[in-house]
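Encoded backbone
================
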Amino acid sequence: MTGDSLSTSSLDGVHRALGAKMVPFGGWDMPISYPTGTLAEHAACRTATALFDVSHLGSLTLRGADAHGLLQGALTNDLDRIAPGRAQYTHLLDADDASVVDDIIIWWMGADDFVVLPNASNNAEVVDALPGCVDVRPGRALLAVQGPTARDVLAAVSPESAAVGRFRVARAEWSGTTIEVAGTGYTGEDGVELSVPADRAGDLWAALTAAGAEPAGLGARDTLRLEAGLPLHGHELGPGITPLDAGLGWVVGWDKPDFRGRGALEAQRTAGLTRRLRGLAIDGRRPPREGQPVLLDGEPVAELTSGNFSPTLGHGIALAFLPVDVQESVEGGAPLVVDQRGTEVPARLVDLPFVGRRS
C-alpha cells in the first residue's frame, strides 16, 4: 500500500523505473502512460503488440461441486453455453432493479474450478455474492498482451500460452512456473491475459518486452476500449443501467431457471426499452468528454457517458444513452449536436464498434 492507502501492483517498481505517469484508479496506483505517450501506446496495440499491467482487476477462485450452481444463480450469463476450458463475459445485477453491479469475466479452468475476474472497485460486492470464493489478487499479477502480433511475441516467451485460442483458457508452464492463460482482453484486438505469481511478474514482463511488446498504460486501454465500443463500469454500466439499456442482452441466459435480478430485468424486457446505448461520431479533433450534453433541436436529450479523440479515426467519438424517440428522429434526419463547453459540434449516430478488430 502507498501512503495514501492506494494498493500497488507487484510491478509498481518496474513502472516507476520506466518513467510511467501513475494515477489512482479503482483504489490502485496504476500507470496511465509511459514516456512514449498514450497515442504511441494506442498505435502499438492497433499495429503490433502492447503490454498492459491490469493487476488491479479482481481475481477470485471458486472451486468445488457447488461452484457451477452458485455462479449460475448469481450471474446473468448461462455457463451451460460454454464448457471447461473456455471464458465467458457476464454480469452481476442488483436484485431489485437489475442494474449492473459489475461486469465480469469467468475463466472455467476445470470441471469444478473457476476464476472470477471482477472490476477493481467492485471486488467486495462480487465476493459477497459468491460465498466460498477465495480472493487471490494479492498473490498474483495480471498482464494483458494485446495486438495483431501479440501471439507472435508471446510465442517467443511461452509457445504454450500463445496457442490458447480466443475465449479459451488453460494453465501453461513458463520458465518453471505455472501460469493461467485466457484468450481475452479489453482492447478490441486479439491477445491473451496472463495470471502469474506476483514474485515472477517482473521476469515475465521483462521477457515480453524483450520479445517486442511495448508497455502501455490505462490511458491507451481506455481509448482502445472506446474505439471497440466496449462499455466501462461507472460509465456505460452501473447504478440505473441494465444490460438491456447497454445493448448487452446477449449476456443474459433467459433459458436458465433463475439469476439475481431476473424479475426486474424481465419486467423491463416486457415493458420495452426507453433508451439505448449508441455510438456518436463527432466532427473535429477536439475530444468530447463524459457529461457533455447531447442536443436535439437545441434541447438536451442525453449526456455523454464516455468520449475521446479516436487516434485511429482522427476525430471525436463518444457513447451516450439516447431515448428511443430521439434515435428515431435522428435516423429520420434530425440534426444531433454535442455541446462541447459552449460550442455545438455536429454528431452522427454510428454502429458499434467504431473500429473493428483487424488482427
